[in-house]
Amino acid sequence: MKIFWYFLYNLLVIPVFLIGGHIAGLFNRKAHAGLAGRRRILPDVEQFMNGRNRNQKCILFHCASMGEYEQIRPVLREISQREPDIVRIVSFFSSSGYDNVVDNPDVDLKTYLPLDTPGKVRHFLNCLRPDAVVISKHDVWPNLVWALASRQIPSLLVNGTMPIDSVRAKPVLRNFFRSSFVDLSFVAPASEQDMKGFRKILPACPNMEVLGDTRYDQVLIRAGESKDMTTILENLPPDKKTFVAGSTWPSDEEHLLPAIIRLLQKMPEFFAIIIPHELNEAHIEDLIDSFESSAIGATLYSKLESGGNLLDYRVLIINRIGILANLYGYGQVAYVGGSFGPGVHNVMEPAAYGIPVLFGPRILNSPEARALQECGAGFLVEDSQDVYRQLERLFADEPARQEAGRSAKAFIDENSGATERITGKILSYV
Questions:
Q1: Which of 163, 300, 332, 377 is most deeply buried (CB count within 10 A of its CB)?
Q2: DSSP characters for 377-420?
Q3: Which residue ranges in the chain fall short of pLDDT 70?
Q4: 245 CB neighbour count, 10 Å cutoff
Q5: pLDDT value of residue 227
Q6: Which pLDDT score, from 0 to 100, does residue 91 have?
Q7: Beta carbons within 8 Å of 175's beta carbon, 6+ residues apart
């Protein structure tokens, strides 16, 4: 059956995918950047490999984008500490992942993963010659996995996610995905629920074990690092009641802004930090106007960096990327965006600071949001009135807010530790 899927995938799926990708590259900046970046793969890898000691072990870590990279960062750090001589290479599918990764001493080389054709994969592996390949979360490409299996190179899927109702587990697609998943050397689902999803595709896989989710470790690391970061928010008085709304979409802001404005008018000590998901200049100006039209002083992070006084304003809008997870540490309550739109973003980031977390109704993509609800640390809001009511209650009742925060932090702590387990498993294959 694998032969059937191999030919169908390479004769039908891949050509359609390639044509669609090139068409998208004509209109979409990210798609164009990904195609352009892939032209540099082999020269970049060859140049790197020419300077490499061939006796050193090499592990390729593949991440679809930035989120998967953040999940794998604790493992990269742990391997760097345990086995500093191992070469650590990180590949990306998306340009948003590749472009936004800054210098990391735990990464020896970053590159794009080649498009998943047999020839491109073969050339890539011939040049790189990894001793193992680790895939973060879900970005399993069939030709890559088949090629690794044929070369007897171990391949591990870690932090694996597979909802029980995933489309990949539907009858026909299940058979297709099984044809590639079966060649993975080891599968580490992130949770018991994910294990059930994987078992629908791989019912007899012996090399499958729940090792946890490294996101819990990563958010704790980020929370610890933020204590050593100096930002303009260091000047924020401790008596401020600070609310941080992260990764907000316009659909979130439709409900957030009226509630924030009401609270600013009612509570003189209330202060709001808003971090939009997309840093679109026109949209950010609209946010500023929304507050100024209500006679509320609002400013941009970039303006304060060039000399403004934070204490002259009551709303700070962040127009800089890469600092969201650190900014949650300045809040007493947080809201996580996407939950009135495509799906909630990472609720674990604010929870790691021990603060209550609000989110909208679209949380099916986040078992962590549901778990925070269950332990009394997360609060679902349906509209602006709900946002106002929850924020007013949490800021008025300090003991209740602190108890919710302790529950949030305990939830993160209880689920940490996956990094050590996953790292040990990877090293056992190298």
A1: 377
A2: SEEE--SHHHHHHHHHHHHH-HHHHHHHHHHHHHHHHHT--HHH
A3: 32, 227-231
A4: 25
A5: 64
A6: 94
A7: 1, 5
Q: How far apart are CA 400 and CA 231, in angstroms?
A: 29
Pairing of strands 186-189, 155-160: parallel
Identify the CA nearest to 51 among candidates 135, 118, 109, 121: 109
- Specify the DSSP class assigned to residue 136: E
Q: What angle do CA 315, 316, 317 make, to 5 degrees?
A: 120
* Phi and psi angles of residue 380, each rounded to the nearest 5 degrees, phi first: -85, 130
What whole-number distance in Å separates Cα of residue 219 and Cα of residue 147?
34
How many Cα atoms are found within 13 Å in the side-chain-facing hemisphere of 72?
33
pLDDT of residue 268: 93
What's the whole-model pTM score? 0.86
Distance, in Å, from the CA atom of 288 to the CA atom of 384, rounded to the nearest integer, reads 19
pLDDT at residue 230 in the model: 58
Q: How far apart are CA 374 and CA 231, in angstroms?
A: 34
Cα 179 to Cα 168: distance, rounded to the nearest angstrom: 12
Amino acid at 177: F
What domains does the chain contain, in order, with CATH numbers?
Answer: 2-213+418-429 (3.40.50.11720), 223-414 (3.40.50.2000)
- pLDDT for residue 408: 98
Distance CA 138, CA 63 (A): 9
What per-residue confidence (pLDDT) applies to 247? 92
CB neighbours of residue 321 within 10 Å: 10
Both structure tokens of 349 = 């980031």
d(CA 376, CA 102): 36
Q: Which CA distances in Å does 332 have to 201, 264, 360?
A: 43, 15, 18
Residues 6+ apart with CB under 8 A from 420: 78
Count of C-beta atoms within a 10 Å radius of residue 228:
6
